[in-house]
Amino acid sequence: MLVRFGRGDEGDGSARHRCRRLGLAPMAIAHEAQAPDAGTSDIGRPWEREMAVRVMTGYVAHELNHPLGTIINLANILSRRLADPVVRSKDISEHVKNIKAEAVRATSIIKNMRMLTEHKPVAHESLSLVEVCHDTIARMKPLAKSKQVKIRFEVRTALVRVHGVKELLETALCNFIINSITALDLANVTSRLVIIRILTPNPAETAIQVLDNGIGVPGSIRDKVFEPFVTTRPDGSGLGLAIAGDIIRLHHGHVSCRRRKTGTCMETTLPQEALR
User: Fold this and answer.
1) Is 150 found in the same domain as 112?
2) Domain range holding 167?
3) What is the rounded CA–CA span in Å between residue 264 and residue 211?
4) Is the dihedral of CA 126, 129, 130, 132 positive or negative?
5) What pTM did the predictor assign?
6) Whether residue 159 sits in one domain with residue 95
7) Which of 94, 102, 92, 109 is nearest to 72 (CA)?
8) Domain count, the chain
9) CA 28 → CA 12, 17, 52, 164, 270, distances in Å?
């Protein structure tokens, strides 16, 4: 499998240091290549700005791709429905409603991505992780169906409330699910399955696990999969898991990736509401 970094080979970690100085504290930026040392000269500052813009642009483009792609698909379906001899108003209304919902989601992306890249304070509200998962799965079902992937949802705890931003948590979960569905594209399995599981790993936290029986993540990059521009696919952007990781850290949680006997487990762990 091909592993790509943003530019150059593995660096010495100074790129992460520069991003912290830029206010991108939670983000692990792609490895540095031939960048001036900003600690000894002002020459490095344009490079820092270029990297910050690159990450911000990449994040926004990656996230806009989802709702815009959905809008295009819905518009095509709507066009076919309108060409039918008999047009059902209920079908039309449903498609129009979904298009509006995706358009609203697209307008919120820049605001949400700025929260991540500028590490701005976020107004949290009380949320049910069950609702977050239900709404995210509903949004992912068309993609899963087109890839012949079954999504199963399991709740193994009653402690499902956290504080957070629902749109952001759904974005993180979407990216985890998309990663699993993509991994199943290359897997030689008879049954393609993604499991979304809510559980309590300890008395203070609640976790969402996304499990698949795909090809798995190579051990050599398992500790880097949440860094921007790191990917195992030639056509991958290397941003989906990085965005998800930043969102969870913004919620005072943490993410992990581990190999299963078959496939991968991506785990998001968040403080429980009463203990936040």
Assistant:
1) no
2) 125-275
3) 6
4) positive
5) 0.67
6) no
7) 102
8) 2
9) 13, 9, 12, 22, 20
